[in-house]
Amino acid sequence: MKFIVQRLYDKGVRLPDQSILNGVRIEGELRTREERDVNGEITRVASLLDGARPHEKLLPDLHHADLVNISPLAMTLRGFERVMTATGPTEVRQEWWIRQPAGDAAATAVLPAAAVCATAEYPAPGHMGAQPAKPAKLLRLVP
């Protein structure tokens, strides 16, 4: 299925809310599978693939992928990315914030965990400004 995905961590460190709001959105086909890890245990792996070239990965795989939040407009997968470091390969924490493709305007109203929509009606993340006059189109996901 096609989704828009944003990474919530960089090298295992949570990105600031503003970086997430302004961050890169990657549209692709989300696929999951089970595979055996190096210890022989079966784990879930999520991949974001290019629809035109289904063997091309748009993001590093998300290993040990768990669905941690779901709503009518978005979901969050949590797991680990494998990265190469000076001391060899390692796994770092990663979460994907996943929404419907851009054709669905409502999908832009959903933000991950503690983030809030930064518009004239909604203050920027961390700001406790006035409440919007009309009902919020915002759905807050609880970790």
Describe this structure in words.
This protein is mainly beta. It has one domain (2-108). Helix content is 3%, strand content 46%. The protein has one helix and ten strands, in the order E-E-E-H-E-E-E-E-E-E-E. It has one helix at residues 17-21; strands at residues 2-7, 9-10, 13-14, 26-36, 42-49, 62-70, 74-85, 88-99, 110-111, 139-140. The strands form three sheets. Strands 1-4-5-6-7-8 form a six-stranded antiparallel barrel. A two-stranded antiparallel ribbon has the order 2-3. A two-stranded parallel sheet has the order 9-10. Strand 7 and strand 8 (88-99) form a beta hairpin. The longest helix is centred in the first third of the chain and has 5 residues, at 17-21. The chain is globular and about 40 Å long. The relative contact order is 0.20. The model is unreliable at 105-143 (pLDDT under 50).
Largest sheet features = 6 strands, antiparallel, barrel
Give the fraction of residues assigned to helices.
under 10%
In spatial order, strands of the major sheet run 1-4-5-6-7-8
End-to-end CA span: 24 Å
Beta-strand share of residues:
over 45%
Order of helices and strands: EEEHEEEEEEE
Count of helical regions:
1
Radius of gyration: 16 Å
Kindly state the mean pLDDT as a whole number? 78
